[in-house]
């Protein structure tokens, strides 16, 4: 295969005593004529190669059915109204609905109605405490530059908007729905050039007023990359403001009594720990924290008594578990009206539910009716009640909602089931553990079709390993399509995630980042050694931080895998902070501005680990040109480097996509991307799927 030519610069810089070559620096500029010409040649190569893959029509057919299974979001309750999202088969995006107390359902926000082209996405939403107003945020073309709107729930009338610069903005309503707290960036002309994506502040806003008249609440003098949270109590008395610099696993938190002087007083400042705080209907300050408890605990204090805010004075409600990680809670009432806590713990990346006494006297019951899978959240009306709603998914169940009631605390019933096409294969899920280079056990979920022979088969190994993200069982059309075609799909729970708490996260960040790559390599070696697959049949796949993961796998263990899908990746770890939101991640990775930390980064940076004359596996890079989180330049640079260096015949392909970004996208776009990715992996691992239409009767729905 002839890859497009890419000029190599003789550019070598001395960085803290390291000689660092960067021959494709020019590919950082998308407007450079050389980049434009090179990218057009890459587009032509990708279209020719991907369009001719024999398995693509079969995967597209099956993915269309599986993706259209639908999804249902967990409801948020306000005074008898339930707000939730739902996507039905045939819909490109989920719609936001309200269910009235009489059971009638209305659509409040439909992204397709706003933009028939399908490039508008619903980023976030928050109903007022009374449920009569809704703040929601949308963005266009994948840029995630959220604009804030407010509408009247009863009439659907737009009350204001758009308010710009609201990316990643929480909304904390005050009672009455006339005012809210939110987060907005400073105007571009007020910040240094190149820092327009930063400099957030917390504001108090009156609905319908000019945002330029908003009252500044907090944020002056903060680090430019700080993210803020704002949360109010239902009675309007208390405001909690939180701050974290970039994605650092630590929070500063303040509490203000709005009925008094409204001064923000420090609840936790300068502490290396995470804390979520809120004042609930019982008047107590609830504290969910990993402070001195890396698997997290739940405690209470008195919001009116600062002396009770120190951890030594907290009253513990749910202590740290010996093995499970406390991830979410909902306050519910018992049959006698006593306050209880419905809690979610993750054990080896599988969620479990249990019921606890609100006074801290201990566990009351296990919810045994929960199947092995993932809880996306638990929700209960803020005014109280004996019922809670549980978001649930597993490898064969699309996101759905279960109902829990105090009358039968061990049981769950179906509240709203996402539609299923009937095309879901009968899954066999095996849990296993690989042993990493330093002896650490690494948990694996191994998915295959029930009844398939236990012989080596084409296998996809998927991972992420960063930013405290846990890979628990979840419905994946891509995984199901691969399994239905006869392959094996494996999810690895690597260090850097939250599967075992904050210690597990920190064991895979900064100077310990190589642990993540060692865990992934150990998972691959385990699958080969135990007969699931062979190096010629093994592929790896990951996106974003997971793109860094598979980029490192490609450059550190090129002989271990046959094919790679590397999507929206970070790959030049020396210069990642200079683009997009890169500077917000330096607590996770380290910074090239520091001599020691540059050494960490150079130790694994995929772009800097390419060795000329190496037989690299087949690699498909997929990028999104509107991505404002991870700049597509990373994939361009490593694609060029691998195309130049590889001694193998396997292709190195760059697939670019316009008008989409890092996050949400239309369903049809999802199908097209996933079909290309799976067909590419199939071609290079020997998987030959049959078309669903050739082997199965037609299904309805």
UniProtKB/TrEMBL annotation:
One of its GO terms (molecular function) is serine-type endopeptidase activity. Keywords: Hydrolase, Protease, Serine protease. SUPFAM superfamilies: alpha/beta-Hydrolases, Peptidase/esterase 'gauge' domain. It is an enzyme of class 3 (hydrolase). Residues 4-410 form the Peptidase S9A N-terminal domain. Coiled coil: none annotated. It catalyses: Hydrolysis of Pro-|-Xaa >> Ala-|-Xaa in oligopeptides. The keyword Protease applies. One of its GO terms (biological process) is proteolysis. It holds the Pfam family Peptidase_S9. Residues 475-686 form the Peptidase S9 prolyl oligopeptidase catalytic domain. GO terms for cellular component: cytosol. Its EC number is 3.4.21.26. Belongs to the peptidase S9A family. PANTHER family: PROLYL ENDOPEPTIDASE. This is prolyl oligopeptidase. It comes from Modestobacter roseus. The lineage of its organism: Bacteria, Bacillati, Actinomycetota, Actinomycetes, Geodermatophilales.
